[in-house]
Amino acid sequence: MKTLDQQIATAEQKLALLRSKKKATDTRVKIIVGAVVVKAALENPDAAAKLAGLLRDRVTRDLDVKDIQQLLASLDKKAAKNG
């Protein structure tokens, strides 16, 4: 029979695994939702303008801003077709 310390260690390992699985699921959901939103925005000038504005307002880290420049250019191009 396992000692209490061994049982605690086993339970902590299970908890860590469950937390890891939850984080992976949460990340996957964000990726799926993001892909759907971007695709929809690239198909609709109004949505493109709104998403570009939202990204410019909310994305503030220099590295992140750099990473989304190509997307912003595509959104701006689509939004320009609105006017």
UniProtKB/TrEMBL annotation:
Protein name as annotated: Conjugal transfer protein TraD
Species name: Paracoccus nototheniae
